Amino acid sequence: MAIADIPEYAHLTDADVEALGAELDAIRRDVESVRGEKDAKYLRNTIRFQRGMELTGRALLFGARDRKLWALGAGALGVSKIVENMELGHNVMHGQWDWMNDPEVHSTSWEWDNTGPSAHWKHTHNFIHHKYTNVLGMDDDVGYGLIRVTRDQRWKPFNLGNLAYNTLLMLFFQYGVAVQHLELGRVAAGKHPNPDEFKKDLKDVGIKVGRQISKDYVVYPALAGAANRSWTSWGRAMTATLAGNTIRNIWTNAVIFCGHFPDGAEKFTKQDMENETQAQWYLRQMLGSANFHAGKPLAFMSGNLCYQIEHHLFPDLPSNRLAEISVRVRELCEKYDLPYTTGPFLVQYAKSWRTIAKLSLPNKYLKATTDDAPETASERRFKSHPEQRLVAEIDPATGRRRGLRSAINSLRGRRSSVISIRKRTQTDGVRAA
Asked: Which stretches make up the Fatty acid desaturase domain (predicted)?
């Protein structure tokens, strides 16, 4: 089952958790005290770059009958949409730049280049996902109501299509964003609490989708066709725009899945939410998120969500500050012996797909248990080893704290020893025969 007692799982006392929270509060205060013109300049330069790429892409599509110009135009448009959605739209709507008091880049006024209405996304993402991160039954981002990503989710024959569903979600991700707020599953089951509200939300989605389709597949391609007096130019510009949108969709899916579904991104039960303090919320974000390695170009193209742990800790701090914040968060993980879940981008993404593939099957066909699997863990994973204390302690030999990370490494060491013994036994048996 998912984690039911977060401090116990983390091998921390209540006092430890509050001390960790105080240190994270200090990081927030330090960043808030120094943000200023340097950060504003970063944002303005990002906007210039994004708009320049969009203009370049649209201009190249006037010559889309040429294959090279088609490819360059689609690529430029794809980059433009990635930056607008991830480094601008996502972060602006989190309120990361509200401190500037600039209405153009304020969370209340930004409408992104995406089929999902900004107001809907801010509710499902900012409020629901970030408040109830990875809490089963409360955070719809745990599989998006479509994909089984933890053994806590009861297997159904529908889950056999896990890989197909995620492929479709990857290719049409912006439409998945558009319908998420509608909660179509509840509507189909007749459980939506407010039918009139659903109708209004559905209308809002329809209007936004219509605007995006008109802009991307009618207006701009028509301009290219008119300029060249050619229906072929219109069609080629339209397919290049479709390719640009698909590039954005695939990339967004990859970045988001790397931050939420690799091994080590833990899940939690509803009881964790009872009387949760700010410090306990911090700890849940640290355990429920994952990073991936990135240099500056990859960080920029991911909206700095390569620092997903730091983003979940401080969702409203400027994204360009997450790299420096990550240094201090790593230090805290060392101090409290907590895992800092990260890895190469392709490895993290591959782990997400592996989990999706595995969990298309019933639990009886899977190895490990519902308390001690790569994608599903709980505090009970340690209970079979009574010598493993579930409270952090100081190693008298080294003076270092021994906590969750040490406990996990200890379990892995035991497994390796058991496997080695089994192999030796099998080898000895073969030799004796």
From this structure: 74-342
